[in-house]
Structures are given as structure tokens and as C-alpha cells.
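I have a small job for you when you get a moment. Would you make up a two-line entry for one protein for me to read? No commentary is needed, just the two lines. Write everything out right here, beneath this request.
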Amino acid sequence: MYFYVNSNKMFFIFILFFSTLISISSNSWLGCWMGLEINLLSFIPLISNTKNLLNTEAALKYFLTQSIASINFLFSILLKMILFKNFEMNNFLSIMINSSLLMKMGSAPFYFWFPNIMEGLSWMNCFILMTWQKISPMILLSYYMNNNFIMIIMMLNAMIGAISGFNQTSIRKLMAFSSINNLAWLMASMMISENIWLMYFFLYSFLNLILCFMFSMLNIFYINQIMNFNLITIIKMSLMINFFSLGGLPPFLGFFPKWIILNFLMNNNMYIISFIFIMSSLIMLFFYIRIIYLSFLLNFFKLKWFKIKIKNNFFSLINFFSLISMTGLILNTFMFF
């Protein structure tokens, strides 16, 4: 959370938010491309840090991958402007535009850069990359969504996000693969309606914010670090509630949007996609339970001088967020009556 004090960082955050608004409100493809470029150029100063080589490496990797995606996107929209001046577009061109946008948001099969860059970022930058940076590509994707192509991508995202998380000890990489898995749900919600997508994205961002905020405050980056907090039961309980909610376990808030999406898929006879989504969610829950299992059941002997200084405000915030995650589903079910 270091950039809140720095005026330069605040300026780049403002440009980052503003560039997303340019992209999603533009009435031409060139305007959308311009917004994406401003977004890229404003995010790089936020993640680069001269004191940390990992941050600088992540910034360089991010720049290269996003530049390749931008070139593909620009080439595709120029082809569209030359060949198809009206709104009709053939499958090849729509797949090209979709592919460049999928690469921009770190979706399968162009996901290889995403976990590596996440590994070199601070938690707050990870949060921005997992949530805000997906808004522009997702909304642009909805303009010319090739349904058959997107269904294949949805299944790939669900499977790769779930399977690639095995044997990961880094929590940042685990969250990256969780983000890839959630992209499948976001694409499915976009196929239903923009309101469902907005609700799912808001809840996903909210749960991500809680977890990233907790890990940032406690300075946790790897699974074995969680075992050190064997005396703070509130933190363990909050981790359990929010991880289960992110995984979509029924009593919690995160289950509600997944329930709506699965209901739509089943009503439209998309049984294979529904099965893959359910199985991938179960695998993701296994990862989260593994983290919680370690924190609850394995204890370290603590040295007398081992102290964790945490402010009372932090505990009250975490308790409030966890309460929302727990009671959210009960409150949301009243919307059906």
C-alpha cells in the first residue's frame, strides 16, 4: 500500500482508472486501443521499483506481453476497417480480436506470463492486476464475442486454472491461477447479461480485496508463512471464511453468483461446461482447504521475542468483511422473494 503516500503513484492510479473509462466508453476501435495503451503505460510505473529487481523484471515482462497483444489488436482492427467497413465481421477476424484481448487479460491459452508477473508484484499491485486490469478487455470482448470460440476458452480457463495450482507453494501464484479459473466464470456471466457480469465481478473483486489486504498487512507470500500465526485465531477464521467464499462454498457470499451462472448453463443444456465448472471449483476448494489446514492444524514453537504488531483497526475491518462474506448469501436469497 506504499503508493497512497506518493503523489506520482497517485497520478498514475488516476490515469489507470481514467484510461479504462476511455476504453469502455469509446465509439471506435482505435479509441479502445488508445485507452488500452494509456492503461499499459500508467500501470508500468506502479509496478516498477528500482530497489526491487523482481518488480522491475515483472514490469518489463508485462510491457513485452501487453505490447505483443496491442500489436495484434491494432493489426486486427485495421484489417476490419479496411475489409469490413460495416459492423459485420467474419469468424477469423473476430477470433483474432478476441485472442489479442484474451492475451491482454491473461486468459488461457495465453496465460503463461500472468503467474510469473504476479510473483514479482506487491499485494496491492496483484489486486489491481487481478481485477481492474480485466475490465477493459472483458467489455471489449463482449462487443464481438464469438460464442463457440469463447466456450472453448471458458473450458480451458476452468481446467488450466484448477490443474496448474497443484504443487504451488507461492500464494501469489495460487491467486493467479484462481484468477484464471474465475475468468471462465466471468466469461460465462458475460454471455448471460452485463448485469450478472457486473455482480460477479464486484463480488470477486471484493473477496480479492479482503485477501490481498490481509496478506499485505501480515506480509505473507508463501503457504508456510501462514503457520507462524498460530495464536491469532481471528485471522485464521477470516482466511477460512474468505477462501471458502472465493471458492464458491454454499453458505458463503461467493456461491451466489456461481449458482446463478450454473442455473443458466443447465437451463441452456450446456451440461459439459457445467460439469467442468463444478469439478474445477472443487479442485480450487482443495487448494484453499490445504492453506487453511496448514494454518489451523500445524503449529510452530514461538520464540519469546516473536511479536506481530497489528492495529485494532485491522481486526475490526477483517471482522466486518468476514461478517459480510458469511451473511451475504442469506441476505441475497431474499432478493428472490
